């Protein structure tokens, strides 16, 4: 259940009486924030006040201290994604003696930094053994416009790999070697320059047993997951397997900081994937009672999809199936939602290897790509992990956002699947909403130019156009999720659940109000006609005319609508109980959720026995409408 992501005691938020130590001030309010000097309180009318802690009564001060302790404990609770815990920092730079540790070329001390001289290779070993998971942080500055910086990393205790920055005239980056292939031939290839001459850059290498990520100035440049036995150094390197090293090639670099910190891995990172990342293995079918779509692993335990695929389903309802139907992943929560971009990221638990993402976002025109998804074929048939070949065209703007345009035909079930280049890097996320809108815009645009374009535009639509969310937007979203604290992850996951419950309650409220109106008996309709003809109608409910009411009543009683209502009501009490114990909603919002649920039940009971008095019926219905509107408005303010 999603409430296990982060759980606070039920007393963490409540409406209570607050008094000052001199007894001159008293108020009913909820504690919403506190620090060592002041408290922020929200009253029942939603007004906010701030009081100094030293002015509070002793019982209130004790309550604040207990509240702060519970809040602190909640931030270390286990959510769906648990950050790594970094150990004590070790200053590696202070350990290095260039005279003893330089292996090739020349390195020298310069104040508190070390600097390499330009040579074919200047390599220096770091005199510190590493084991297990760790983080290496260094600050480096390029001294001239040419030359690459390479960092030798130990992975999985017995394996090594070289992280390369700005090698050669093209200034390419990536890992060498993976499966005995250097960076242009493996999935970590990054094509854009990373480092700037004369400017400090912070490089952070985070290394786990089977997962490696390298960032520069906060931006992910390299990410790789897989069996560490696939990683090797070139045979010319003679480096102990537990040692790190730095080298420069045909250039000079100044290293002013270098720190090492061991890592205690989060629980969801403790797995040992085998084999290579494969689109055939890492693309999933996402199902829930109200729909289905596609998704794919883009980082350890993070599944990417379109927002519209999962927006109507709580995490408990989401079923994630990989190619073997028996292989499904548990969903911990929805950690990222961008409605405008139609992008979402789920926290899942799986041992499968994620696909590589083209973090530079480079997609040349005319490049061959493949699109993978689970298209619906009609008649309840879904084609699992289907592959569609395509060719990239250009970047186009649809409704204010840039999308990658691909010549390919796709169906709705492919929403959220990956678009892959020839290195099997993800260069985009299939966006069906953008595809539908984009095809319409292109068709309309061509038709407006000249009638002679109509046939061409029809053919173009038949041939198929697909749109994808660019990889650089996906990379930003992934970095956003990785930077979350445990508390933030829990808040994001809970917010999704609250929105889903709110949508369901709002829909049910609309259905129940409509049912009450169309079920009004004929006698009441006759009363309404007479009254509305003799008095102002502003304070009277307008009844739907008899014939439209009959048709609507028949539609509401149909099996499809009744099945939809059943789905909306499914597990509602469980979801509302979870909201009641949520640490991320105020007591006022929790009461609003409860009140809206009770109001819907009251409308349903009223619908079953509306009576025959039109004035009484009108008064009750208008009150129901006002109450529902007010409650929905108040809930939306916090969502």
Protein architecture, described:
GO terms for molecular function: cytoskeletal protein binding; identical protein binding; protein-macromolecule adaptor activity; serine-type endopeptidase activity; ubiquitin binding. This is SLA1 homology domain-containing protein. Pfam families: SHD1, Trypsin_2. Keywords: Hydrolase, Protease. One of its GO terms (biological process) is proteolysis. The protein is α+β, with helices and mostly antiparallel strands and about 650 residues long. The protein has 5 domains: about 1-75, SH3 type barrels, CATH 2.30.30; about 90-270, Jelly Rolls (Sandwich); about 280-350, Trypsin-like serine proteases (Thrombin, subunit H, Beta Barrel), CATH 2.40.10; about 365-475, Beta Barrel (Thrombin, subunit H), CATH 2.40.10; about 485-639, no CATH class. About 30% of the residues lie in helices and about 30% in strands. It has 14 helices and 34 strands. Strands 5, 6, 8, 9, 11, 15, 16, 17 and 19 form a 9-stranded antiparallel sheet that branches. A 6-stranded antiparallel sheet has the order 7-10-18-12-13-14. A 6-stranded antiparallel barrel has the order 20-21-22-25-24-23. α8 packs across α10 (about 545-555), α8 (about 485-520) runs antiparallel to α14 (about 615-639) and α13 runs antiparallel to α14. The radius of gyration is 30 Å and the shape is globular.
């Amino acid at each position: 259940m999603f409430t296990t992501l982060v759980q606070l005691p039920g007393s963490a938020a409540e409406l209570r009486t607050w008094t000052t130590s001199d007894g001159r001030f008293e108020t009913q309010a909820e504690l919403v924030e506190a620090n060592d000097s002041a408290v922020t309180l929200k009253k029942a009318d939603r007004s906010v006040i701030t009081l100094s802690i030293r002015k509070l009564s002793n019982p209130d001060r004790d309550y604040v201290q207990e509240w702060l302790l519970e809040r602190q404990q909640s931030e270390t609770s286990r959510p769906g994604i648990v950050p790594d815990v970094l150990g004590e920092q070790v200053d590696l730079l202070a350990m290095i003696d260039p005279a003893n540790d330089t292996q090739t070329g020349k390195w020298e001390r310069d104040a508190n930094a070390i600097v390499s001289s330009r040579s074919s290779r200047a390599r220096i070993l770091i005199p510190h053994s590493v084991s297990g998971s760790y983080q290496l942080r260094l600050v480096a500055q390029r001294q001239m416009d040419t030359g690459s910086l390479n960092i030798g990393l130990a992975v999985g205790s017995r394996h090594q790999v070289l992280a390369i920055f700005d090698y050669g005239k093209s200034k390419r980056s990536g890992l060498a070697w993976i499966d005995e292939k250097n960076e242009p031939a493996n999935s970590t290839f990054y094509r854009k320059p990373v480092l700037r001459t004369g400017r400090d850059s912070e490089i952070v290498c985070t290394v786990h047993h089977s997962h490696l990520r390298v960032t520069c100035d906060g931006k992910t440049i390299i990410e790789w997951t897989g069996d560490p036995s696939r990683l090797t150094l070139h045979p010319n390197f003679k480096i102990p397997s537990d040692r790190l090293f730095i080298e420069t090639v045909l250039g000079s670099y100044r290293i002013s900081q270098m720190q090492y910190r061991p890592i205690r891995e989060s629980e969801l990172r403790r797995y040992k994937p085998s084999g290579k990342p494969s689109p055939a293995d890492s693309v999933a079918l996402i199902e829930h009672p109200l729909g289905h779509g596609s998704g794919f692993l883009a980082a350890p335990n993070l599944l990417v999809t379109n927002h519209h695929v999962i927006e109507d389903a709580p995490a408990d309802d989401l079923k994630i199936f990989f190619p073997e139907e028996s292989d499904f992943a548990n969903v911990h929560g929805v950690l990222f939602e961008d409605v405008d971009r139609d992008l979402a990221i789920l926290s899942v638990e799986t041992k499968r290897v994620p696909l590589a993402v083209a973090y530079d976002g480079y997609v040349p025109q005319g490049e061959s790509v493949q699109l993978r998804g689970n298209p619906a074929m009609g008649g309840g048939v879904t084609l699992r992990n289907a592959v569609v070949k395509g060719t990239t065209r250009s970047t186009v703007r649809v409704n204010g956002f840039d999308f990658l345009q691909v010549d390919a035909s796709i169906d709705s079930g492919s929403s959220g699947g990956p678009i892959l280049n020839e290195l099997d890097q993800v260069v985009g996320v299939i966006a069906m909403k953008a595809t539908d809108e984009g095809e319409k815009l292109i068709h309309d645009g061509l038709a407006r130019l000249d009638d002679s374009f109509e046939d061409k535009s029809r053919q173009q639509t038949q041939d198929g156009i697909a749109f994808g969310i660019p990889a650089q937007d996906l990379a930003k979203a992934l970095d956003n999720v990785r930077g979350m604290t445990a508390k933030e992850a829990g808040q994001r996951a809970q917010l999704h659940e609250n929105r889903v419950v709110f949508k369901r309650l709002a829909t049910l409220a609309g259905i129940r109000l409509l049912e009450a109106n169309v079920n009004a008996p004929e006698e009441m309709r006759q009363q309404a006609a007479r009254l509305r003809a003799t008095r102002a109608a502003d304070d009277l409910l307008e009844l739907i005319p008899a014939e439209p009411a009959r048709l609507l009543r028949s539609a509401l009683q149909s099996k499809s609508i009744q099945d939809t209502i059943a789905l909306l009501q499914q597990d509602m009490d469980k979801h509302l109980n979870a909201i009641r114990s949520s640490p991320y909603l105020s007591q006022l919002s929790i009461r609003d959720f409860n009140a809206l649920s009770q109001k819907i039940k009251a409308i349903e009971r009223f619908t079953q026995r509306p009576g025959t008095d039109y004035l009484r019926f009108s008064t009750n219905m208008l009150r129901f409408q006002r109450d529902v509107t007010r409650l929905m408005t108040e809930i939306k303010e916090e969502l």
